[in-house]
Amino acid sequence: MSLEITTTPSASPRSDEDVARVLEDPGFGTTFTDHMLQVTWTPDDGWHDARITAYGPLSLDPATAVLHYAQETFEGMKAYRHADGSVWTFRPEENAARMVRSSHRLALPVLEPDDFVRCVDALVEVDQRWVPDAAGEKSLYLRPFMFASEAFLGVRPSQHVTFMVIASPAGSYFKGGLTPLRLWLTEDYTRAGRGGMGAAKTGGNYASSLVAQQEAMAHGCDQVVFLDVAEGRYVEELGGMNMYFVYADGSIVTPETGTILEGITRSAIIDLAHKKGHKVEERRFGVDEWREGVASGEITEVFACGTAAVVTPVGTLQWDGGEVSGAATEEAGPLTKEIRQDLVDIQYGRADDGFGWMHRVL
Ligand code: PLP
Ligand code: COI
Questions:
Q1: Is the Cβ atom of 307 under 6 angstroms away from ligand 2?
Q2: Rounded distance, CA 28 to CA 95, Å?
Q3: Residue 265 near ligand 1, beta carbon < 6 Å
Q4: Closest ligand to residue 168's CA
C-alpha cells in the first residue's frame, strides 16, 4: 500500500522577494526551502505518518542511535526547471534503488522506490517556487535521508527509523565553476575495503573522508583521491565524486564498482559516451597509470562527476613529493565539455531524452 502524505503549510514562508534573492546566487547547501517531509518507521506499523510540515529543527533525545552509531543513509538528487516552466528530476528511481541497497547495508528498513519517488515529488510540488529557472544551470538540490531515531544505547538495528526529504537551491558546487580541480592523493587514509560500506551512501564514509579532505585543503587542493585498501595502488573515487580518464585514442576508463559509490552520473556518462561511439572500460585503474599516462600525453583528459559536481575537469594530481598536470589545466578538455553539455542539455530539457532518464514532477 502506498504512503498517504499530509501537508501542513508553513505559517511563515519566505517572501517571494526573499526567495528571488536566494535564487540569484544560491551557492550550495546553505539555504533551505519552506518545508520538509518526514516519515516514521516502526516494526509494527512499517512506514507511516508521512507528513510535510514547515522546515525547522528536529527535537532528538540525546540517546538517539544515529548520534552514536551513525546508522543512516542518504541520497543526493536535483530538480530542474525547463524553459516551459515544467519541473523534472533525473533518474529518481535510481536514487530510490540505491537507497534500498544502502539501507540493506546499514540494516535499515526498505522504503519502496515508488514511495521514495512520491515523497520527493510531493516536497518539490509544495516548494516549487524554490526551483530556480534554467538560466545559469541552477537547480533545487534534494536530500532524502534515513536515520536510526530510536533512543537507545545498545548496539543493534534501531526499532524506530525516520526518513526525511529536505531541499536547497543550488548553483555550482565548486566556487571556481568549471576551473579544473587540483586533487590531493592521500596515501595515509582509505575510504572503504572489501565487505565495508564503500558502495553505500552513508554518513560514515563521509566522516572518514574529512581528515583526508582537510589534508587536501592544507596542500592547496580542492578534493582528495582515495586508493584501494588492499594494495594502495588503484584509484577508487574522490570524497564526493566518481572519476573518468580519457585516452588520446578516444577510449575512456572509469574505476570499476565494488568499494565505490555507484554514481548515477557515472552510469549516465557510460551511456552517453557509448552513444558518441567511445569505448568505455570499467576496470581497476592504477594511480601509476594516471601519473604516467598524463605525463606522456596518452591520457588527455581527466574529469570527476556527481550530482553536485555534474562534470568537473581535473587539472593536476598532487601527492607528497610531486605532482603531474595534464593538458587541461586552464579549462576543461573537449570531451569533458561535450559530455557535460550532453548531460545538462538532457537535464534542462534542451535535448531529447532518448534514455527515459527524466521524470516529470510538475
Ligand atoms: N562518489 C561519492 C563518494 C559521492 O558522494 C557521490 C555523490 O553523490 C558520487 C560518487 C557521485 O554519485 P551520483 O552521480 O549518484 O551523485
Ligand atoms: C552529491 O553529489 O549529491 C553528493 O551527495 C556529494 C556531496 C559532495 C554533496
A1: yes
A2: 20
A3: yes
A4: 2
